[in-house]
Amino acid sequence: MTTHEVLPIDSRVAYPNRAAIEHIQNVALPRLVARAWLHIPFYRRLWTQAGVNPDCVTGLDDLRRLPIIRKQDLEADLIAHPPFGSFQGDFPAVRLQASSGSSGKPKPVLHTRADWENITNLWARRLAAQGVTSADRVQVAFALALFIPGFTSMEGAMKLGALAIPAGSGAMTQSMRQLEIAREWGSTVLGATGGYALHLATEARERGFDLKRDFSFRVMYHTGEPLVEETRRQIENAWGVKSFNNYGSVETGAPAWECEYQHGMHFNEDAYLFEVVDPETLDPLPDGEEGAVVVTSLFKEAAPVIRYMIGDIASIWPEACACGHPFRRLSPIRGRIDDMLKIQGAAVYPTAIEATLRQFPEIGPEFRIVVDCKNGRDRLEVQIECAPDQNDTVNDLAVRVAQRIKERVGFSAAVTAVPFGGLATAEDVARRTKNRYVVDLRKTQP
Amino acid sequence: MTTHEVLPIDSRVAYPNRAAIEHIQNVALPRLVARAWLHIPFYRRLWTQAGVNPDCVTGLDDLRRLPIIRKQDLEADLIAHPPFGSFQGDFPAVRLQASSGSSGKPKPVLHTRADWENITNLWARRLAAQGVTSADRVQVAFALALFIPGFTSMEGAMKLGALAIPAGSGAMTQSMRQLEIAREWGSTVLGATGGYALHLATEARERGFDLKRDFSFRVMYHTGEPLVEETRRQIENAWGVKSFNNYGSVETGAPAWECEYQHGMHFNEDAYLFEVVDPETLDPLPDGEEGAVVVTSLFKEAAPVIRYMIGDIASIWPEACACGHPFRRLSPIRGRIDDMLKIQGAAVYPTAIEATLRQFPEIGPEFRIVVDCKNGRDRLEVQIECAPDQNDTVNDLAVRVAQRIKERVGFSAAVTAVPFGGLATAEDVARRTKNRYVVDLRKTQP
Questions:
Q1: B384-436 tens-digit pLDDT
Q2: In CATH, which of 3.40.50.12780, 1.10.3720.10, 3.40.190.10, 3.40.630.30 is domain A1-337?
Q3: Cys staple from A256: which of A247, A412, B254, B392, with CB 3.0 to 4.6 Å?
Q4: Under an 8 A CB cutoff, do B165 and A96 touch?
Q5: In 3D, which of B145, B333, B142 has the Cα closest to residue B220?
Q6: Which residue of A has its CA nearest to B94?
Q7: Tens digit of each residue's pLDDT (9 = 90 or more) over B154-168
Q8: Which residues 62-101 of B have a C-beta within 8 angstroms of A?
């Protein structure tokens, strides 16, 4: 192996202790930096400006010499160097996937054959940790197009010898059809966003199915949007499954996953470095303290991310996990920096509102957070779905929900109830992957 | 290699002469039959009833001792042995794809890891013959869900080192977005049904694009529906590309492909046996004579098809092709047996009507064939799209179209013109894969 080759990531490998993990990282980081310097103009430019070169990075301790990059840096690079930017390098890419992009335009991310093998190996590792075996039938209900996790998780399932069933999202296979596929072909595992897994539960109930008796699901895996604990519990209770969160993005690959203990997400320390920094000062924060997550992909050839502020708020948990795996854990994601709503100067995360709503079983899975500004004053409205024919109960419910939201986020919200189905159609839910719940009218108001 | 192992199919291999090809077939057929006898109850039952066992099949000459199977046999087996039938065997499958199924229910077809590797190798072979190289950017605009060719052709492109871009059909990525992807990311190859390739041309023109200047396409590959010659020419003229037909189905894999000469489809004789038989008597027909296509997949593990009447009408061309490839050719598909419309006792194929319409550049790509029955008499109506504001011209056009149809199919049709967009939306077109043009009202009439 030359110094510029990437590490092949094994789908099964485990490391005996921290020293073994750190040894891998100390080898991989200088190799990554040397490769990026040689092949990726974006980093060469950036590091030259910062006065860094590969000789400055001989091991893990030198990581902080490298500048932190943000989504906006990659977007600006795409505009300056169309069509694929200068951050992807000159590697022979065989696959393009894209993120939805904050500007509404998909951001292309290239993958070499080795990248594809490694990311799908990492998905095999995730799914194995979540109990998927060769005996499973894995229905993949993620959008199969530019959005990446449907493809990579499907390959991961195939690598475990499971039977992969590419249903695609509701835009390709409508929810009733998804339910028929699951029932008739005996799907035991569902891959879907948490929102879509809940939506399918509603659809199944409306059509008179008994979710536990009529279906064979035992595991559901999610990614693509933060999964709040209360949503997970609703999925688990509705379907009688274990439901697992997985953290990643098209830029990073498949970094972090929940084990059977469902308490924080182990990150693949043989393939990624994780840091948490202060989002304003960019100073490193100690383990356990909440801040902006920064990821370095040690194994990627095309478009590796090196100190990439992925945009999420979380903390690193250094404590050993009960499962015994030596990989450290990321806390549940508090929210995306981009999703944070500043309302009258206070920070509110949509996930906090979601978590509150999930405590009310009489509220449907869909909701909307509408923010606007009247007479210079920000207003927060939370729209929920519930049964239409009990007006008194609905009013009472709205009052109780508003009270709980105020307790949790410290801020008064108007709660409006609409009948079930009033907020979204199945196809809408299936298409959306991010920011599904927020409508911020202030952005469109003068 | 034991006698029961399958052949690995090389994506590049070519054979020097017929003797070499027949040697492969003589080895593979007895092996396939022995494997099916051992592992696949469906064939064991069928052959026992027919008084055949593996000892009866020592080489190619014994193929005709095996009974021919039809789509209905597989469908009945699925009902008798849910959920996957007894025709798939007891092999460890990692992937389920499905055909749309004549009954409206998708027919599941399982694939082992070796099947997936082989079918994607065959796609790499097809695309290489059609001029795709590692320098290409391949936009895959087939439906990515249970329909198989989007996935397998994308893997084939990746195996050639090309950059695969999974756009998915119009249901996932609407036509305007497809055009933006193609333009901004410089797609050079498009994979789509012929109908969708034409539809995209219409969309691009309506939005004021210059199809040849604004896009970088040079090759388009099609499958999933018969591609009539006149449709191919419209695609080629509109986009300034070479457009290639590929023949197959989820049950068979990727058997036949056009070479650069676009004259008949070579079938992969190291992986398939092709026969043409009389659709009524099932008697073999000599080369050159048109009849029902019967396919045997030599290499498939799960769900191999052995003497499977795929449902299409064509002939085998034994003559050497100008390209020099020793694989024989299948003629262009005349139509599907199922698509054949019996109108007043005469056989009419939708492809014949399509071919006629494509000769009129003033007619849009969408059309509908509506058949009904009034006073015991079958009636054929052909609905076309053309510009709305020239009534006299439209009437004159309809008369000329009706005349040409009568010349070609020997049958009078009423031709009705509606304005552009009157017959279908982009999403409709993208979702459909078969029988896109026919509405037979007789089936719903008492």
A1: 988 866 567 788 888 899 999 888 888 788 999 888 888 865 445 444 434 56
A2: 3.40.50.12780
A3: A247
A4: yes
A5: B142
A6: A163
A7: 999 999 999 999 999
A8: 82-84, 92-97
